[in-house]
Design a protein that fits this description.
- By secondary structure, this protein is mostly helical.
- Helices cover about 85% and strands about 0% of the residues.
- Helix 2 runs antiparallel to helix 3.
- It starts with a helix and ends with a helix.
């Protein structure tokens, strides 16, 4: 995410439960993907899991961006 988006998240996550949960979920998926990417070789099951996590990470980012757009509109 861009620094501007990170600032908005930090600013509003303290009082927005939905945003905080979506951001925490996004970070969790990022860590899981990073762990898989460090492996030299992925099994077929790990490749499927990697694709699943990528989709979930993208969905969580979309949710974050949707929440942030509400803050941008109200500003």
């Amino acid at each position: 995410m861009e620094p501007r988006e990170e600032r908005l998240i930090q600013e509003h996550a303290a009082h927005d439960e939905e945003l905080r949960a979506a951001y925490d979920e996004h970070l969790e998926f990022k860590q899981k993907l990073d762990a898989l990417r460090k492996k030299v070789y992925l099994t077929a099951e790990e490749e499927v899991e990697q694709k699943r996590i990528q989709k979930l990470k993208l969905a969580s980012k979309d949710r974050i961006m949707q929440i942030l757009s509400r803050y941008r509109q109200s500003a």
